[in-house]
Structure formats: C-alpha cells, structure tokens
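[[Per-residue structure]]
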Amino acid sequence: MPQDPTLERLLTFLARSPTPWHATANMARRLEGAGYRRLDETRAWSLSPGDRVFVTRNDSSLIALQLPEGRLETLRMIGAHTDSPGLRLKPNAALRNRDWLQLGVEVYGGALLAPWFDRDLGIAGRVHVRREDGTTQGVLIHVDRPVATIPSLAIHLDREANNGRALNAQTQMAPVLLQGGGDSDFTALIKRWLHEQQGLEDVEPLAFELCLHDVQPPSRVGVEAELIAGARLDNLLSCFCGLEALLAADGSQGALLVANDHEEVGSASACGAQGPFLADVLRRVNAQCGEAGEEGLVRLIQGSRLISCDNAHALHPNFPDKHDAAHGPAINGGPVIKVNANQRYATTSETAALFRDLCHEAGVPVQSFVTRADMGCGSTIGPITASEIGVPTLDVGVPQWAMHSIRETAGVHDIAYLIRTLTAFVNRSRLG
C-alpha cells in the first residue's frame, strides 16, 4: 500500500487526539509550526495585514485566522467541532464493587453504547493540580495503553442479549480498572500518570475532565485500503480537513477556521458555537483590520461565507431503507451537501450553489443528503453559528458509517476531495 502523507498525518492526528483538549493542542502545534502566532484573549491584540494568528478558549476550542495583505472585507470561514460522543468519568469516579475498582461514567452526547463493551480502553483528558508552591495548573494526560474494559455479560446468563436489550449506563457500563483496588487508588493512579507523562511530582489533583477511549489505533481498511476506520472521525475528520486547507492557502484572502467544543451536547457553552467565542474574535479583528464600528462588522459578516463541516450519513448497504431513495450518499463519492427544510442544517440554495461551483472548480464530485421525511434529523454548528452571528452558511460533510460509535468508518478519497474543495474556498476571490 503506497504511503500517502496526508493520510499519515490524519492517522497520527486521530491517534493523538483522544479528547477535545488534545485535538486543540495538536492543531495549535501544527499552526505554530506553520508560522501562526498564538494570541491570548486576556491581553491586547496587535494585528497587521498578512498576519496569521490563532487563539484557543477552554483549551478545547480554537479559531485560526489568516488576514489578507490589504483591508479585511470578507472571510472564508470553515467550521467544525472538536468533541465526540463517548464515556466521561464522574468527579467521584472510583467505585468499589466485589473486590474490583471500577469507574462511574456519564454518557457524553448521543453515543452508541453497545460497541463500548469488550474494548481495550485508555483514559485521557485534562487534570487541574495544585503544585507544591501553591499555584494551580491544568495539564493533559493520555494513557494510551489498555487500563480498563467494560466486559459483556455472557449470553448463557442473558439469553435475550441479541433481542434488543436496553443498556443502562449507570448500572451496566462501569469499566473495570483494578482488582483489589480501593477508592484512593484512583487518585494515586492519576498522580502516577502525571509523573510519567508530565514529570510532575508533589502535586495534588484538584479536579479533572477525563474520558475513556479505545486504544486501538485508526487504520486503513479494505482490499484496496479505500476506507479509514477509527474513533472520533465525527468530527475530527472535519477539523483535520479544515486545518489542511487553511495551511495550504495561498494567503491572498481572509480565511478563518473555527473548531468549537460541545457540539455533541448542544453547543451552549462559553466555547461552543452558541457561545460568544467567534463573535468576540470577529469583533476584535475587525476593529483593527477592517472597517471599524458596528456597521463595519455587519458588512464583514454579510460579505463572508461559512462552510460548516460535519460528517454525513453514508448509505449503509445493510440498511438501505434508512435513507431517502434519492439521497443516499456513497462512500468515496465526494463531499455531501446537507439540506433540511426545518433548518437543522443551514444550507440555502445560494450557499449550496457556491459549494457546487467550488467542487466543479476543484474537479471534485459532490453529493446531497436529506433525511427521510418520517425520521428525525440531527444538527450541526452550522445553523447555530448562522443564528448567532448572521453569516451565510451551508452544511457539508464527509460521508461515513457508524456515526457516534466507538469506531467509525469513512472513505479515504472523500477526505482528499473535501480538502481540495476547502482549499479552493479559502483561495477564492469572489464569494457572491
């Protein structure tokens, strides 16, 4: 199988990004390596034409910005989200049960629960600690070896297991961590991981946001390796494609990448799409590089366009009746324009036409998705961002199978197609 540098970067990004905090840190590192300058929201900004900058909020959301050489009048915006459904540990996570140390979990977002059983699970996330000198610090940990599992109950003890039995996350999904362990052992494990990974000693863990994750690495699948399988494809694929396009931009136009946290739980947070993060950044940037004042900001936003990227449901060969007969996107058939009459997606005919024209320009096939009229429809950051700031928006995504599973599947060609189209978007001189 020939090596593809883009796919190798993607596989590395997926493997090293088990949480939104890790994904944001990894994107920040790539931006800094490409010459982007980190800004701090608590300090004054000094921006000039041609600057390339980025800023993070909550360490889990990121906005990167390429300013044009002249006056800022329009922006080509790409939106995605850093979070994925899964299992997160409760604050008092340690459970002692029948001589086993287990962990209490919460379900984050609309996760498919059954695939979490019998997996090799690691632990990753953010821990805030008090150091010996009394200062506090937030640090990341990533235990990428199997330290926990959620064992299934044998079919001999549950003969109805294959008949649609409901799963109870409170009573049936506590991971097994340590035999003979007590409650205090989990705190000791956190300290040990902090020492092993961050070199921290004599620290007191004060609070944490920790997730379970599958340690099986992402991989290429299929006789011709035409598929990619891995965790968190929704929506780290979009984060990756947007970042690749931004870094490949020729610098002639104003371009922006926003990757919000908390999309999977409604986006209502300080760093989510329903929060003020993007509006705050746009206001500060426009004040220095655009037409100052409220009217100038409105003109900037209305002259801009946002492509909200979030994966789409590919036609499943075992369940073709789950799609509208005329709207079943094929894996490796090109990016998907997502449409919903009830505004669960933000696409309009105007913004859809722009994307089709971009695909034509890039030589990329394009597909469309509308959910069945008798089924509910998910949503994205697209309509939320459009509602919050008023930017003309469309929703697109790479088609995939098994959305919200612990392991999802997409097509390798679609990733390249979306990057090409987004690169054409950030380089395009006209948006109307």
The mean pLDDT is 95. The chain has ten helices and 20 strands.
